[in-house]
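Final paragraph of the annual report: two paired records, presented back to back.
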Amino acid sequence: MLNSLSLRNFRNFEAADFELGGSSTVFLGANGRGKTSLLEAIYFISTLRSFRTSKIRELKRIGSHGFEIALKMLRREGWESEFKIEDFSERRLFVDAQPVRRASEFADKFKCVAFLPDDPVIVTGSPVLRRRFLDMFICMLDRDYFLALQKYAAALKSRNYLLRSGRPDSSLLNVYGTLLAEFGSLIVNTRIQFLKILEEKTASLLLEIRPEISGFKIISRHSVETLDSRTFQEKLEKTLEKDLERYATLTGPHVDDFDLLANGKALRFYGSRGQCRMVSLALKLAEFELVSESREKVVVLVDDALADLDRKAKESFLSKTQNAGQVFYAFTELPDDEVFHSSRVVYL
């Protein structure tokens, strides 16, 4: 259970401390008071990523040189741990006041799923948003995948740097191509495996919440050569001239996508606003339920994401998330639903 959160120069908070104990907490206040920032800080401690931006510099308070987040958590064994992030000239991670060098040793100390107002962009937005959602989901369930993403990203950055240099060293290109092929093929195959699991769970939830949205499918869009490390590397060698022209690696899981289909049609092209909203909700609930089936309770973050749900979808959402370890809500006004009557309210 998360017990307390301390922020220094994070977003609009210069210095703030919050008690988090309890199964359900509501952050209540007008727009601009920092409700979403509190949820973001919790999410960042769990994943080392923001659900609002990919630019870490945007997290620091304007005029400051960096930020600090510290979160205390009561372990099942009965003792308390503290997780701390300092991001000034460089990022420093601490667990119980001891420095941690590797992100993989810090992240995922507790599972966290966020329900956000802009979740429909997973369905309707750019491929990078779908990849981000999928990668975050898989990372919570597969540590090897997390490590493969890190190593792939490092190799991709180095290879692209060589491509931009104008006269790349062929032996170095081959080294980075080997790394991309090794970790890239693992990423592609793991994504396909988890997309199938996600498809089955989401289809089941849609049958319960919106049975008229039938025939739900997820179709992976990837290069078949990337399924195997050998053919992946051969593909990189064949497309080297194009990569040199574009100064970037054009093949691999960093450019892949997946389509979400219902009734035989791609939702991002043919789905109504209501359909895309319900599918994105079912996707996130599927993520929550699948992660909950692992050994730990999940922390759920809800950023005013219930406003446009009809009664049936809202009741289903509240019923299912009651199984979470803790739930943190952000609202401008407290809803009338009975579940919030016993919630701890923090006014901002």
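The closing record of the year follows.
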Amino acid sequence: MNLAILFGGKSSEHEVSLVSASSVARNIDQKKFKIIPIGITKSGKWYLQSDEELARIQSDPNAAFKISEEPQNLVSVIPGGKSQALLVDGKPLTVDAVFAVVHGTFCEDGVLQGLLDAAELPYVGCGTMASALTMDKEMTKKIWNDSGLPVVPYKTFKRADINDSKRYDQLVEETIKEFGFPLFVKPCNAGSSVGASKAANAREFSMALGEAFTWDDKVLVEKAVNAREIECSVTGNAVIQSAEKECGQVRSYTPGEIAPTHEFYDYDAKYNDPDGAALKIPADIDGETAKKIKALAEEAYKALDCSGLSRVDFFIDKDSGAIYINEINTIPGFTSISMFPKMCEAAGLNYKDLITLLIDEALERFEARKKLLTSR
């Protein structure tokens, strides 16, 4: 089977994607899948990468993809092209499925998924709608609220609010009065804690809002919780799961815990500081709490009609013991030592088999969708 692996992208998480995709390329079952590596530049253009680059990645456990931008290797996409939808130098690449190991804006937010749907190519991960919803933290929280799931209290600031000074001052005053300090401030549509800050006073709150608005036109402000950070991996298809096929069944895995050494688990702690956090798998929680976390993770996943894979992040309040669903990440970090695959491994699903499971689910979902009527 010819599998296109997409990596890079226009988002702030470009470099993270290069590392995750390299790990997939090294650990995939090479007897089952022939890899077609395609790099997406920071300007958004797609380029087919050489066999030599793939060989370099597969032979070096520490290597990360580098994107070569040879003009003759520019990739174009033909809507409705199916397995011949990707063209290079006017000639089709035969692609049976796509594994998009990309993160953030233009990649994880439904834009890429919509393009692949238009091309009629099967792909790993959530569909267009679920990808768009889950990328928007406000929309995600609204759906979870409507589903009766526990989320941290929040308010949303929009660009229109800061353009109206009276409205902006009113929102700031209401937020401080209702939540107090400290507050967490983050862009609604960004990942890896990019643009996120913790504010301990009014001055820091103003600065945090300014930083977040450089990344997005909507900003989420949350009441800070003195919390432990717990994560849980989920796979399967929330809409068409079938008891007959394992790959489509919604399943949660062994929860893990992140113990940051920084003020909070920001981008620097995640990617620049090797001692930014201690990762514990399994999480140091009792069996009943672990069972509840897994059940909530599956409910959160199903409420958003997710498919493929997602990592659901939780807070456990250290003072009250209350559990809150924090966020969901539909294309989480995917190196062999990332939390998502490690939590799956702790539950008995190894990395290579996890990759195969996700591809099998993508193909099953694609075949099921083909059976639906689109016209009369």
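The longest strand covers residues 227-237. This concludes the annual technical report; the extension proposal builds directly on these records.
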